[in-house]
Amino acid sequence: MLDSIHVGFTGLQAFQQGLRVIANNTTNLNTPGFKASNLQFSDLMDASSSGTKGGEAALGHGVDALASRVDWRQGDFRQTGNDFDLALDGQGLFVLRDGQGQTRYTRSGQFQFDAAGVLLNRADGSKVLGRSADGTLGEISMAGLRTNAGKATEVARFTGNLSSTATEQTVGSVQVHDGAGGEHNLQVRLTSLAPDKEGRWKVELLDGSTSVGEAELAFEDGLPTAATSKLSFSYTPAGRSAQPLTLDFSSDVTSFASGSLSTLAMTSQDGFGPGALTKLAFDATGVLVATYSNGQTSKGVRLALGRFSTPDAVRDLGDGLYAETGGVPWLLGAAGDAGFASVRAGSLEISNVDLSREFSDLVIMQRGYQASSQIVSTANDMLQELFGMKHK
C-alpha cells in the first residue's frame, strides 16, 4: 500500500507538470512567434523487478514527466501595419546577435531601427543579422540608403508620327537631367531635306536658342533606318561637364503623310534628380528595399535565417529566443532560398496555441490528477484500516 501511495504521488507530480505546461501555453496565446509545448510522459518500473516472476509481469512504479517538446507548427499571421514587423511563412528563424556576441534565433519578428540606423529586436535589443552575397553575416543598417543621388540622362526616347508632308517640326519639353540631378528643358527641331533627300530630316538639338548639335534621321517605308534611329550628341549644361545624350527614335516612331500634323514627342528618359528616403521595407525574399522621392529604389542587405535539422538542437531561452544546443550545428541561409521561409512584411506570426486542444488536455490532466489523488486517498484509508485491525 505504501507503494500504491508512491505510485499515486508520481501521478500527482506528473499531472501537475502537465497543468503547468498547459497554463504556459494558454497564457501565451497572444505572444507573437510563441510555440506551444507538449509534455511527454513515461511509465516507471520497479527497479527490483527486472523481469517476470512466475509468469506474471513486473509491477509498474508510476509515471514520470519527461522534458516538454516544442510544437513547431506554423502559426497564423496578423497584419500590424508596421513595415518592420516581419513574419516567416515557412521554415527558419531570424538570426540575432546579443550584446555578448552570442547568436540567438527567434520567430517573433518585432524589429525596429535604432537612432544609428541599425535593425534591432525590440524584445532584448539584439542586432538582427543579414547575409551578404558571399554568405557573411552582419548587421542590417540604413547606412548609404538615406538619400539617392541624381543620374544624368543618357537616352531620351521618342514615339509618334512625323508627318512626311510637313517641312518642319519642333518637339518641345525635352526634359533631361545633368550629373547633379538638375533639370534642363531642351528642344528638338526636325527640318525636312526633301525634295533633294526624300525621307530624310535634319535633327537639331537646342538648349534655348543655342544649338547643341545636329544629325540626320532617315526613314524608309515610313520607319526609321537602323543606322539613323539613334542619334548621339554631346550636351554641356551650364556650369557642368559635357555628357553624352542619345535621342532614340527606334521604337514606335513613323513618318507617314498626315498634312502638317505631327504627334512626335518624347515619352521617357533615363535620368533623374536626387531623392530623399520615403519608405524602407523588406520584400518577400528578405531584401531591405529603400524607396525615394524621385521614384527610384535601392536594395540593401538580405535577412539571414537559421534552420535546425533536429528539435534536439534547440534550447528555449524564453522571451521568444532560442539557441543551439547538443553540439548540432544549424543551417544558415537567407529568406527565400530553397528550404527557407519567405518574409511577410507588416505582419506578425501569432502564437500557434490551439485553445480547443489545450482545454481538452486540461480536462485530461484534471481527471488524471483527481484519479491519482484518489489512489493516494484510498491507499491511506486501507492503511488506516490495517492499523485499526492491529489495535483490535
TrEMBL record:
Main location: other
Subcellular location per the Swiss-Prot or TrEMBL entry: Bacterial flagellum basal body
Domain Flagellar hook protein FlgE/F/G-like D1: 87-130
InterPro entries for the chain: Falgellar_hook_FlgE_sf, Flag_bb_rod_N, Flagellar_FlgE/F/G, Flg_bb/hook_C_dom, FlgE/F/G-like, LlgE_F_G-like_D1
Transcription listed as a keyword: no
Keyword set includes Cell membrane: no
Highest taxon of the lineage: Bacteria
Record keywords, A-Z: Bacterial flagellum, Cell projection, Cilium, Flagellum
Pfam families: Flg_bb_rod, Flg_bbr_C, LlgE_F_G_D1
Domain Flagellar basal body rod protein N-terminal: 7-35
Flagellar basal-body/hook protein C-terminal domain location: 345-386
Membrane spanning residue stretches: none
Function description: A flexible structure which links the flagellar filament to the drive apparatus in the basal body.
Entry's family note: Belongs to the flagella basal body rod proteins family.
NCBIfam families: FlgEFG_subfam
PANTHER family found in the cross-reference section: FLAGELLAR HOOK PROTEIN FLGE (PTHR30435:SF1), FLAGELLAR PROTEIN (PTHR30435)
Protein name per its UniProtKB record: Flagellar hook protein FlgE
